[in-house]
């Protein structure tokens, strides 16, 4: 039995997760050396309670492919090895995520604003590294894309920042990063408060905090905002919070208040960790595209030429290249441009369509003169309801009963139809040649995204 695409995806994610774990451990050990064991332990407790940092550490987003460089760079900054740190950030910025160049810039300015000689040295280091990294990324990407002079991060900058095409994905107010996304990433409300307190105590981390604030403010001028664009500053703020933990008891009046502070903070952090576990479980229901792709792969022989269309929503929710297990005989279409899609549609090109109710292909199928048969409905999470929690609390108070506690989490999730898997039936002969009789039930099969466990690899 050969290695499947999902096996390769699991292996890739395991490697990326390991690299990020090693980077976090290296940063933790550096904190222990530069500060002390207590600060390092509080740092790791606060960090592990943050959902996004842990959940996405193994996901093959370019932001987290760049994060191992960020961990090491931040550790080097704590050791005052600025040249190496800036070199790593610039290299990762040129090759993986361009926004790291902005972070490298704010860190350079914040750490050298009173040392012109050092500033010139870091600028020279950044320039040399940037030029070298440019040759590396162009050589590698041009080879894999089979085209001359492919420079992904330069094209991304021109497309998203200069042409402002990213605004087509939505814009948010200037303060969204500070008011919405930063508290979301930190998870624990005490973390931001402790970081601010640490700054007021003239922490030795202040310059990095200033750099992180300047970086966030700079990116706030861009209309389109996502939490992953500022995720790199989270370790800095979390470390500042951990540093602040050591100083708070010194300003709390009364011995009892001083004794209670750390146990209360530990309890709040524990609640944040539980909330992160809930988010991780709920997120397993957020990848219906992966389940839909798995289902369609089993609906026809792998050796028969088949054309599958997947809409944008399907591709954004787990339908990846790794899951296209019937290539090269099958062709998987992910056409986004309306004119190209309509041309393919009018030719009757597709045999299967994986679509969401909000997409144009779904409307075309419903109004099509061709015969389309609904084969599968993939159910996914639509939201979270607190009503079951209220009912359970009332049950405890009135009946002194914990009955149903084992299904409480599942009952808080609101599930609904998400992706429809359609088959285009050309003739009765086609359908009998493609499918066994028992697979052709009158009613479509309903698949719950999350039940089979593959979402962990999406």
Automatic annotation (TrEMBL):
<feature type="transmembrane region" description="Helical">
    <location>
        <begin position="229"/>
        <end position="252"/>
    </location>
</feature>
<dbReference type="GO" id="GO:0005789">
    <property type="term" value="C:endoplasmic reticulum membrane"/>
</dbReference>
<comment type="similarity">
    <text>Belongs to the glycosyltransferase 22 family.</text>
</comment>
<dbReference type="GO" id="GO:0006487">
    <property type="term" value="P:protein N-linked glycosylation"/>
</dbReference>
<feature type="transmembrane region" description="Helical">
    <location>
        <begin position="121"/>
        <end position="145"/>
    </location>
</feature>
<dbReference type="InterPro" id="IPR005599">
    <property type="entry name" value="GPI_mannosylTrfase"/>
</dbReference>
<keyword id="KW-0256">Endoplasmic reticulum</keyword>
<dbReference type="GO" id="GO:0052917">
    <property type="term" value="F:dol-P-Man:Man(7)GlcNAc(2)-PP-Dol alpha-1,6-mannosyltransferase activity"/>
</dbReference>
<dbReference type="Pfam" id="PF03901">
    <property type="entry name" value="Glyco_transf_22"/>
</dbReference>
<keyword id="KW-0808">Transferase</keyword>
<keyword id="KW-1133">Transmembrane helix</keyword>
<feature type="transmembrane region" description="Helical">
    <location>
        <begin position="264"/>
        <end position="282"/>
    </location>
</feature>
<keyword id="KW-0812">Transmembrane</keyword>
<keyword id="KW-0328">Glycosyltransferase</keyword>
<keyword id="KW-0472">Membrane</keyword>
<comment type="pathway">
    <text>Protein modification; protein glycosylation.</text>
</comment>
<feature type="transmembrane region" description="Helical">
    <location>
        <begin position="180"/>
        <end position="200"/>
    </location>
</feature>
<feature type="transmembrane region" description="Helical">
    <location>
        <begin position="12"/>
        <end position="28"/>
    </location>
</feature>
<comment type="function">
    <text>Mannosyltransferase that operates in the biosynthetic pathway of dolichol-linked oligosaccharides, the glycan precursors employed in protein asparagine (N)-glycosylation. The assembly of dolichol-linked oligosaccharides begins on the cytosolic side of the endoplasmic reticulum membrane and finishes in its lumen. The sequential addition of sugars to dolichol pyrophosphate produces dolichol-linked oligosaccharides containing fourteen sugars, including two GlcNAcs, nine mannoses and three glucoses.</text>
</comment>
<feature type="transmembrane region" description="Helical">
    <location>
        <begin position="86"/>
        <end position="109"/>
    </location>
</feature>
<protein>
    <recommendedName>
        <fullName>Mannosyltransferase</fullName>
        <ecNumber>2.4.1.-</ecNumber>
    </recommendedName>
</protein>
<feature type="transmembrane region" description="Helical">
    <location>
        <begin position="64"/>
        <end position="80"/>
    </location>
</feature>
